[in-house]
Amino acid sequence: MSITPWHYHSQTQLLLPLLLIALAAATRLVVLGAAAEKQGQPITLPGCPDKCGDISLPFPFGLAAMPGCFLEGFEVSCNDSFDPPRAFLAYPGLSQSVTRYSYIYSGAANITGRVRDMNITVVVAPFELIGVSSAKGEVQVYGAVASVCSTNADNFVKTRQATYLVDTLSINGEGPSPFLLSMTRNVLVGIGWDVDAMVSSSIGGKVGNSYFLTCESDLRGNLHDATNGSCSRRGCCQPSFPEAAPLDRFSVNVDGPYNNTLWETNPCSYAMVVESSWYNFSTPDLYGDELQRKILPRGVPYVLDFAIRSGSCPPEGQPSPVCASADSYCANATRGPGFVCKCLPHYEGNPYITGGCKDIDECEHPDLYPCSGTCINKPGGYDCPCQRGEKGDGKTGTCADKFPLLLTVVVGAIGGISFISIVTLVILLRKEKIKMREFYEKNGGPTLQKAKIIKLFKKEELKPILKSRNFIGKGGFGEVYKGRLLDIGLVAVKKPISGSVLENNQFANEVIIQSQVIHKNIVRLIGCCLEVDIPMLVYEFLSRGSLDDILHNNNVAPLDLDVRLHIAAEVADALAYMHSKAHTRILHGDVKPANILLDDDFMPKISDFGISRLIVRDRQHTNTVIGDRSYMDPEYLRSGLLTEKSDVYSFGVVILELISRQQATHLDGSGLVDNFLAAHKENRVAALFDNAFTRPRDLELLGNLAGIAIQCLEDDVNQRPSMVEVAERILAIYQSHITLI
Ligand SMILES: *[C@@H]1O[C@H](CO)[C@@H](O)[C@H](O)[C@H]1NC(C)=O
Ligand SMILES: *[C@@H]1O[C@H](CO)[C@@H](O)[C@H](O)[C@H]1NC(C)=O
Ligand SMILES: *[C@@H]1O[C@H](CO)[C@@H](O)[C@H](O)[C@H]1NC(C)=O
Ligand SMILES: *[C@@H]1O[C@H](CO)[C@@H](O)[C@H](O)[C@H]1NC(C)=O
Ligand SMILES: *[C@@H]1O[C@H](CO)[C@@H](O)[C@H](O)[C@H]1NC(C)=O
Ligand SMILES: *[C@@H]1O[C@H](CO)[C@@H](O)[C@H](O)[C@H]1NC(C)=O
Ligand SMILES: *[C@@H]1O[C@H](CO)[C@@H](O)[C@H](O)[C@H]1NC(C)=O
């Protein structure tokens, strides 16, 4: 078997059909809009159908087959071949996809194994509607559940071999679609003995602007820690979404368990984005297909906000043509651009159609509209005079005929308190609005919304960039050009100079995997061009070039110690993430300063994961060693087996370069690594530190870093710390350093 650049931890076991089977047993699906849009009241434009099967379609929604019955973006296709018919959002390009990785894993119980025979299938489907509320500006849709299961448990125990299926859900849209994930109505839920659940996104498609919500749950093998109804990191985790920039696309990932002994008991791990009230954890969900029984046949319900994304509300006092009901008003969307229509207070119904908002008869709802006097409904409110002979306000329940002075005081106090609360509320709401607006602006807004996460470029689009005046470098992969792309900005285009196209769809598989890796310290793959012999890759462009240039170019001022520490901490964090977080564990295999790029603020980003390595693989087979020998784990050179510890070794060399500002060379006996190891034995490593630093405190800190590097460079692979440990230790050093400054 050939060496793959990524290796995988073993994950779960037990035979389980992954299809979302079985009927709902214990779900509490409260369909949106069922109550608000009451029978009898029109909810559509005249002459337009108002239903698809059991699902009401209030305007601006309408059947795609009936032009004029919907606002652009709100078209719904109704499929009559089902009974009852089913409704799907038909906005072009809006879809959810489920990526299924199927692979054979093999390895001993206690080590990272290998993956072979990976098949990836992507199923793209439109969103199926469960309900629509035009009054709330929400739709409820079915979403898939991400899961990781093993399909041949018995065989696994005997042969250490298993096939895994991993479903990853992502929402794709060709913006600006009307729909964004609701941040208030959904939660992320992870379920399993030892599960990592994650929602990731690049906000507004903006490069490098990533959003993560993660949760971990670990039972540590003790089932008694799990409690029914409690989703508190024991078998179940459930963070709510922090208020953040709008998510118009996201993916849900799941990973776990890591403890191999759990293979026997852990059937599957799950992650889902689901309506917050829908899921109630119960311990049987940790076994067998209990959870699947609860999942509706088509997935789990979650909520999307909608708004009219183009245009905005007219100036104060002028009616909005879209908010057609006389008793409605126009309001800015709470998230994202655009606006929504709402009924005025004390009205309900569909604000988007003429006469849609109807007066609420408050007297029929005494629970919501209290009245201790005589209730009289009137348009836009109600009166509640006290009985004859009484004084006070029936609405606040203060009708009384005695103690008028006390009454006044009470009423005054209540009035005062309500006034203060209202003022406070208004201030808070306004602050929140401004903050959300700022977040939105800061994050680049809708200008980049059009870009998909991975873009397929046409050859002509990249052609202008591939000119000699744009040439910025040459690496193991090929030539790199700098250019500017419309809507995207500066990019680095990597063009392979030799190699060959990979067999079957390995390249496509790798692109899918890579596109799902979003981390602030990993150079983002924007897209690729497949219209050429060997695919060209388009990455985000980083202005300050590579760490190699900066450390070893004498024209550049030496980096401050805190910048170097920060770089080490961030790079370690990214490598630890790649090794331990993503469900497809990606090894780098060629960690070196030339592959660490820096942006304007000296934020480091690792480049050249995965894909580039696959492309040059052909050449590696014939002669050259994979990666750069100066940074290469000697154990890897001996055994040819790339492990996580190989990256740890290479990272150790990077630390040495950071603290010495000397370039590692691959000369047996006198290279940077050998010098350091020799100096370490003789207790004189400080002699090798960059002489830009002389303060005792700085030297002590460099000594600590050197200590970590020396451990990373241990000959015995098992003595080397894991990347997670390295990241934690460097972070601790960094934090103690910056608190001292
Ligand atoms: C309706 O659903 C069936 C079954 O999934 C599918 O074959 C058919 O193409 C759908 N029809 C439309 C109009 O989408
Ligand atoms: C991948 O697909 C091939 C061809 O369909 C099949 O023979 C093989 O068993 C699949 N491998 C896995 C791990 O599903
Ligand atoms: C894994 O277990 C085997 C014996 O089962 C042992 O020889 C080997 O050293 C272990 N490897 C690690 C990395 O712990
Ligand atoms: C793995 O789980 C078993 C119980 O299932 C427990 O005894 C063991 O300590 C766990 N191992 C680790 C490394 O957490
Ligand atoms: C949780 O509830 C289920 C029934 O819904 C029951 O079978 C199970 O034993 C309960 N678990 C605990 C820890 O109480
Ligand atoms: C969730 O389940 C627990 C235990 O089964 C129960 O006490 C609780 O009321 C349930 N919560 C909801 C919202 O159904
Ligand atoms: C609504 O958004 C527009 C710009 O889109 C802005 O000018 C206006 O002030 C906003 N209105 C409120 C009430 O925030």
Can you summarize the main beta sheet?
10 strands, antiparallel
Q: Give the terminus-to-terminus CA distance.
A: 52 Å
Oligomer: single chain
Query: Which residues form runs of ≥5 with pLDDT under 50?
Result: 1-27, 155-161, 435-453, 500-504, 611-625
What is the share of helical residues? 10-25%
Count helical runs: 13
SS elements, strand count: 33
Question: What would you call the shape?
Answer: elongated
User: Any idea how many domains?
Assistant: 4
Strand content: 15-25%
Report the bound ligands by name, code or SMILES: 2-acetamido-2-deoxy-beta-D-glucopyranose
Query: From the helix content, strand content and strand pairing, which structural class follows?
Result: alpha+beta
* Average of pLDDT: 76
Please give the radius of gyration in angstroms.
30 Å
General description of the model:
It is a single-pass membrane protein; Single-pass type I membrane protein. Its main location: membrane. Helix 10 (644-660) packs antiparallel against helix 12. By secondary structure, the chain is α+β, with helices and mostly antiparallel strands. It has 13 helices and 33 strands. Helices cover 23% and strands 24% of the residues. Residues 228-229, 280, 282 line the site of one 2-acetamido-2-deoxy-beta-D-glucopyranose (NAG).
Blueprint of the fold:
Layout: E1 51-52, E2 55-56, E3 62-63, E4 75-79, E5 86-89, E6 95-106, E7 114-125, E8 129-133, E9 138-143, E10 146-150, H1 153-159, E11 161-172, E12 179-181, E13 186-191, E14 194-202, E15 210-218, E16 236-237, E17 251-255, E18 268-275, H2 290-294, E19 300-306, E20 328-332, E21 339-343, E22 347-349, E23 357-359, E24 376-378, E25 381-383, H3 404-442, E26 455-456, H4 459-462, E27 471-474, E28 478-485, E29 489-496, H5 506-515, E30 525-529, E31 536-540, H6 547-552, H7 561-580, E32 596-598, E33 604-606, H8 611-622, H9 634-639, H10 644-660, H11 672-681, H12 696-712, H13 723-740
Parallel strand pairs: 3-4, 26-30
Antiparallel strand pairs: 1-2, 4-5, 6-7, 6-11, 8-9, 9-19, 10-11, 10-18, 11-17, 12-19, 13-16, 13-18, 14-15, 14-17, 20-21, 22-23, 24-25, 27-28, 28-29, 29-31, 30-31, 32-33
Helix pairs in contact: 7-10, 7-13, 10-12, 12-13
Bound molecules: 2-acetamido-2-deoxy-beta-D-glucopyranose (7 copies).
